[in-house]
Design a protein that fits this description.
Layout lengths: L7 H11 L8 H14 L8 E8 L2 E8 L8 E7 L13 H11 L2 E5 L11 H14 L7 E11 L1 H16 L6 E5 L10 H5 L8 H11 L23 E5 L7 H13 L4 E4 L16 H17 L2
GO molecular function: hydrolase activity
Family: Belongs to the 'GDXG' lipolytic enzyme family.
Protein name: Putative triacylglycerol lipase
Length: 308
């Protein structure tokens, strides 16, 4: 493994994360060890939230609503799509960030428990996310929403799903999020991108991991679908403004950078956060490493402006 110059704090986070790796390589083993790792990095929820579990369009979701009076125009809303390579992760795995965003921003956050591969390959996850978004737009939730202040946000595979959701809604001529927030997203870039080579054995996500997850998620007949690999889209116009956060030591780094460039070339708005010194999956290191806290500061700043 080549050397990646992480700070001592981030290196300690990586070591602790890896300590949960299971010798059981079955999907159940992978999911169990991933969930144990997630619990270890999940702080108690803030007190100023009302949490509810419900279904929208038949898809399980968790809603985090601030315990304050609803704004006159309805709740600003973040639709959160979790990462995990489309194979692991659930509502609990990303409670560390969904509860935090709801409390910090005092907005409604709706997290989607979309179906996972390989039991449910593409397009199941995309279909679930679209179904939840459309249900929210149709007023099928118990929450009154501010129609002008609704965003989609996702990390890793969730960033892929967020971009796919925006493409699919635009193509269908339907209501779009005000912004798409993609955190170290995997967007289906070519295997010969520089970051695939430079970060082939990067901490927490290597090039082989990327290919393994994609193989489980994406059956061969769908390999050229832009809703599975958004970088394959031929038209990037008319999409929501974007905030795209990269991680420097991540084989997926160039996916986000390319998507940013294509949005700008199509006349769109996009803000790129270079994520110097960061690794894939570092969102869990909030409060443990200054470079991760800097990412959160930029993220919260963008979300506050986008929700104004």
């Amino acid at each position: 493994m080549r050397h990646y110059p992480l700070t001592p704090e981030l290196a300690a986070f990586v070591a602790r994360t890896l300590s949960f790796t299971s010798p059981d390589s079955s999907f159940k083993g992978q999911r169990d060890s991933y969930n144990r790792m997630c619990r270890a990095f999940t702080a108690p929820r803030p007190d100023n939230l009302r949490i509810s579990e419900l279904q929208l369009a038949g898809v399980p979701v968790r809603a985090y609503c601030p315990a304050r009076p609803m704004p006159a125009q309805g709740w600003p809303c973040l639709l959160y799509l979790h990462g995990g390579g489309w194979v692991v992760g659930d509502l609990d795995s990303h409670d560390f960030i969904t509860a935090y965003l709801a409390a910090q921003l005092q907005v409604l956050v709706v997290a989607v428990d979309y179906r996972l591969a390989p039991e449910h390959p593409f397009p199941a996850a995309v279909d679930d996310c679209l179904a939840v978004w459309r249900a929210l737009q149709a007023g099928a939730s118990p929450f009154a929403l501010d129609p002008r202040r609704q965003l989609v946000i996702g990390d890793s595979a969730g960033g892929n799903l967020a971009a796919a959701l925006c493409l699919a809604l635009r193509d269908a001529g339907q209501s779009l999020p005000a912004a798409q927030v993609l955190l170290y997203p995997g967007l289906g870039g070519d295997t010969d991108l520089p970051s695939r080579q430079q970060c082939a054995d990067a901490p927490l996500l290597g090039r082989d991991d990327v290919e393994d997850y994609l193989a489980l998620y994406l059956p061969a007949p769908h390999r050229q679908s832009p809703y599975a690999r958004p970088l394959l889209a031929t038209d990037f116009s008319g999409l929501p403004a974007a905030f795209i956060a990269l991680a420097q030591f991540d084989p997926l780094r160039d996916d986000g950078a390319l998507y940013h460039q294509r949005l700008l070339a199509a006349g769109g708005h996009s803000q790129l956060y270079p994520g110097l010194g960061l690794v894939h999956g570092c969102l869990r290191a909030r409060g443990l490493a200054a470079e991760v806290d800097a990412l959160y500061s930029a993220l919260l700043g963008y979300l506050r402006r986008a929700l104004e």
